[in-house]
Write a structure and sequence with these properties.
The complex is a heterodimer of chains A (80) and B (512).
Chain A (H helix, E strand, L loop, with lengths): L2 H15 L22 H15 L14 H11 L1
Chain B lengths: L1 E4 L9 E7 L6 E2 L4 E6 L4 E5 L4 E6 L6 E3 L3 E6 L33 H5 L11 H10 L17 H11 L17 H7 L21 H9 L18 H10 L41 H24 L2 E9 L1 H11 L10 H15 L5 E4 L2 E4 L5 E3 L1 E2 L5 E2 L2 E2 L7 H17 L1 E3 H5 L3 E5 L18 E5 L3 E7 L2 E15 L5 H16 L5
Parallel strand pairs in B: 5-16, 12-17, 17-18
Antiparallel strand pairs in B: 1-8, 2-4, 2-7, 3-6, 4-5, 6-8, 9-20, 10-11, 12-15, 13-14, 18-20, 19-20
Helix pairs in contact in B: 2-3, 5-6, 9-12
The chains are: A mainly alpha (80), B alpha+beta (512).
């Protein structure tokens, strides 16, 4: 999957999990936990939503790669 | 003939707005079944009926604002109630028992529970216990006809049928105010609970529900008005006078904004004259959302102030080695679809629930100068709301849930807490609360107990820490657990026992 498509999918997933977040806040360097206040349950929902929309299933061992928005987009792009 | 009345969904609640009926005339409702959704100023809460029978008539409409105790529907008790297998109480996938037989002096069995003898537990299997909970039957009061005196499903059904007599709204551990009498008492500040918060929030304004609704719709702050009603109460006329005197506010419509945006009698001011929005946000924040957030903030502040004022807190802390627990969990999660993976928080919650069952001084309510331990553990979970504020709804019967059920329950609870649709029992009946700030990156939290509970457990973040073992130093994942406890009910020894029990349970995660 190319990065643009991945980004669109990721932004849509964030919109579902944290609807109060502005798309403008989803910059690549934004950290999920510290900057976007995504807690462990939100994170699970995010991973689930992405799996449902893109088919990219994330094993637990890969969670550390999804610490920032850029990380998530990159992961989806390379696995999608 | 019984009535379904507006329940008190919090000690400081005076009125609520009916936002949805979940039943219609002609429906048969079981005790404990969810029948309506009520909006308090903090959240929308689904409430259950304590009457069983056929819904005869709906007395209130969606949108009505009614005081606590006001009748909302008439329910006709039928002789046949209690017989057929109960309906699934709700239109929602995950079902939690909607009610617990709370420890209260007016019922026979809890008197012995209040004396603190949880050892007289009657053998009851979890499914039967949940059923009993749902239909409002106290299993400790039933003579079981199953093997070894166990209480069976049929025993519960019989007891439910025997209890199907119209009775007024019982038990919320918060004293449920009678429609007008107690409300005035509360308003006079006889109880500290909410009338005069220690913070800078304005004193409560006396006014009628209709005046409040009108004020809300027009963005008018009641505290700014001089009331001409009884005891300085702000009347509808007072609000109307204020409306005609102030510039028109036209907030942008949002899903939660009240529908009446067009004011009733704007004389001169054109629509361009607007109040500056409170937060100066780029999109004008509508009254409903900011009012709700402010209301929630005030409510939290009041509750925390009361807690600190009335509960003598003591604090204990311990650091727990989580190597065994996280290793076990990682193994358990391998091969599981995302939807059923466990998070560390669930292990911490389950261990806490089990330890609480064994340490009754941590689990129950302090009401009317005495401690009433609770047999079931309804574990409150402090959930941060994304727009600020916290709610702490309960996972009911947490000590009897499997880890998978608890995980599912936790996800559902948090989603509904953030989405704003919790049930009365979840809001009112936590017997102990856990606050898990681990996700925010702090080591530990010394929290404030939520009255009428008597303890609060905090967990910091799970982090790799140096660990000494057998004379050598290594690295292990660990978490700092803290206990804030009520010194009127327990001493440090019991508190320490409770915390170390949580530790012990987490060293054997397969037993959780």
């Amino acid at each position: 999957m190319n990065t643009d498509d991945a980004r669109v999918a990721v932004q849509a997933a964030f919109a579902q999990v944290a609807p109060d977040l502005d798309a403008a806040e989803l910059i690549d360097t934004a950290r999920l936990r510290q900057d976007l206040e995504i807690d462990s349950l939100d994170f699970l929902r995010l991973v689930e939503t992405i799996a449902a929309s893109t088919g990219v299933d994330t094993p637990e061992s890969d969670y550390p790669q999804l610490a920032t928005v850029g990380g998530v987009v990159g992961y989806v792009a390379s696995h999608g | 003939m019984g009535e379904f009345r507006m329940p008190a969904l919090g000690a400081d609640m005076e009125e609520g707005t009916l936002v949805e009926w979940l039943v219609k005339p002609g429906d048969f409702v079981h005790r404990g079944e969810l029948v309506a959704a009520v909006d308090t100023d903090k959240s929308v809460i689904e409430v259950e009926t304590f009457e069983e029978g056929v819904v005869a008539e709906l007395l209130a409409q969606v949108g009505d604002v009614l005081p606590v105790g006001a009748p909302l529907a008439r329910i006709t008790a039928t002789p046949a109630s209690g017989g057929p297998a109960e309906k699934q109480p709700v239109r929602r996938p995950v079902r939690r028992p909607a009610r617990q037989p709370a420890p209260e002096p007016t019922r026979a069995a809890p008197a012995e529970r209040a004396a603190g003898i949880p050892g007289t537990a009657v053998p009851v299997s979890p499914p039967v216990r949940q059923f009993a909970h749902r239909v409002g039957v106290d299993t400790a009061a039933i003579a079981g006809t199953g093997p070894g005196g166990a209480v069976t499903h049929a025993d519960v059904e019989r007891a439910a049928a025997a209890q199907a007599r119209p009775q007024l709204e019982p038990e919320s551990p918060h004293p449920a105010p009678e429609p007008t009498v107690k409300r005035q008492k509360q308003a006079r500040g006889a109880e500290e609970s909410g009338r005069t918060p220690a913070l800078a929030a304005p004193a409560h304004v006396r006014s009628s529900p209709r005046a409040r609704k009108l004020a809300r719709e027009h963005g008018i702050d009641l505290a700014m008005l001089t009331g001409t009603g009884p005891e300085g109460a702000v009347t509808e006329a007072d609000v109307n006078a204020a409306i005609t005197a102030t510039p028109v506010v036209t907030p942008t419509a949002t899903p939660t904004a009240t529908p009446a945006v067009t004011p009733e009698a704007p004389p001169a001011p054109p629509e361009s004259a607007e109040h500056p929005t409170p937060a100066g946000a780029p999109t004008p924040a509508p009254d409903a959302a900011t009012a709700r957030a402010a209301g929630l903030r005030r409510a939290i502040g009041t509750l925390m102030a009361r807690s600190k004022k009335t509960i003598p807190h003591y604090y204990l802390t311990t650091t727990i080695d989580l190597r065994a627990a996280t290793a076990w969990m990682e193994t358990a999660n391998v091969g599981r679809p995302i939807t059923s993976r466990l998070v560390p928080a669930v292990l911490l919650l389950k261990a806490t629930a089990l330890a609480a069952r064994e340490t009754p001084e941590m689990n129950g309510y302090f009401v009317d100068d005495e401690f009433r331990p609770s047999v079931p553990v309804h574990l409150g979970v402090a959930v941060a709301l994304r727009k600020g504020g916290i709610v702490a709804p309960a996972i009911l019967d947490a000590d009897s849930l499997s880890l998978d059920d608890m995980m599912e329950g936790l996800r559902d609870l948090v989603a509904r807490a953030r989405g704003g649709r919790l049930q009365r029992a979840e809001m009112a009946e936590a017997t102990l609360t856990v606050t898990n700030l681990g996700d925010l990156g702090v080591d530990s939290v010394y929290g404030v107990i939520y009255p009428p509970q008597v303890a609060l457990v905090g967990f910091g973040r799970v982090a790799e820490q140096p660990w000494a073992h057998d004379g050598m130093v290594g690295v292990r994942p660990a978490v700092t657990a803290t206990l804030s406890a009520d010194h009127r009910v327990s001493d440090g020894m019991r508190g320490a026992r409770f915390l170390s029990r949580i530790d012990e349970l987490l060293q054997e995660p397969e037993g959780l």
